[in-house]
Design a protein that fits this description.
Elements: E1 20-24, H1 29-40, E2 44-49, H2 52-62, E3 66-69, H3 75-83, E4 89-94, H4 109-130, E5 134-145, H5 155-175, E6 179-185, H6 191-197, H7 201-211, H8 220-232, E7 240-243, H9 247-250
Parallel strand pairs: 1-2, 1-4, 2-3, 4-5, 5-6, 6-7
Helix pairs in contact: 1-8, 3-4, 4-5
């Protein structure tokens, strides 16, 4: 005769309780969803973004510890932001910056610089300014894309994606015991995707629903769940973690 299954009555503490998560680009999309997920895991959140109205709405929803409206690609403003934080922090998630798909030889110098600044230079500047504020074992977490790994994915975006992987591995060694990781996403159904695709957005959604192994489009909440897991799992550093619903398998 089998014994009845015993259900544990122990209460599991939220895994980010007592920790502070900074989300750069936290007023919408993946950044906002990551902040929501971190709050549900017990963290306090600090949000930054360019749009002050969206930022204040997000802060009100999440009862954010603080906010700062500025352009993260401005080195002086980024340095001032980290310098003015009133307490040590545990995790920094960076979703700011847009992908660039210009052809390398057809791009002008400003376009090339913008492509590098929006991801590579931003990552270096965040690491430089956040290093002394992060508690040991904390996380720097950046975003990239899986499409950029393939040369056919589009000139500048491929260069940036390749560079980010190498940069994250080097930063993980230089900043240890602070952990540094990268999330590489395929198509994610965000406001940024909507602005880039315009009227083609619904066609893209239908195409992905029909072809992806998961049978649906990847949402910001999916990426947020991975981001918070990387924050919680203290064995992860120097890695790139894909989330694309199997898009690379069928591309």
């Amino acid at each position: 005769m089998t014994s009845p299954i015993k259900v544990s009555s122990s209460h599991r503490e939220p895994e980010l309780r007592g920790q502070t998560v900074v989300v750069i680009g936290g007023s919408s999309g993946i950044g906002l969803e990551t902040a929501r997920r971190a709050r549900s895991a017990g963290a306090q959140v600090v949000l930054t973004g360019r749009n002050s109205e969206r930022l204040q709405a997000a802060a009100l929803e999440l009862d954010a510890l603080s906010t700062a409206a500025f352009d993260a690609n401005d080195p002086a403003l980024l340095k001032r932001f980290f310098g003015e934080l009133s307490q040590p922090i545990d995790h920094v998630m960076v979703t700011a910056g847009a992908p660039h798909y210009e052809n390398l030889l057809e791009s002008n110098l400003d376009e090339l610089r913008n492509a590098l600044d929006d991801r590579l230079v931003l990552a270096i500047e965040v690491a430089r300014n956040a290093a002394d504020r992060l508690r040991p074992g904390g996380t720097l977490l950046f975003m990239s894309g899986t499409k950029g790994r393939h040369p056919r994915g589009g000139g500048t975006v491929s260069i940036v994606a390749a560079g980010l992987g190498a940069l994250i591995a080097n930063l993980a060694l230089e900043l240890a015991p602070v952990r540094v990781n990268l999330i590489a996403a395929g198509f994610v159904d965000t406001p940024l995707s909507a602005s880039l695709l315009g009227h083609d957005l619904e066609n893209r959604r239908e195409q992905l629903r029909a072809t992806l192994p998961i049978g649906r489009v990847v949402e910001p909440a999916d990426v947020a769940a991975l981001a918070v897991h990387v924050m919680i799992n203290t064995a992860l550093t120097g890695g790139t973690y894909d989330i694309d619903g199997g898009q690379q398998l069928v591309a």
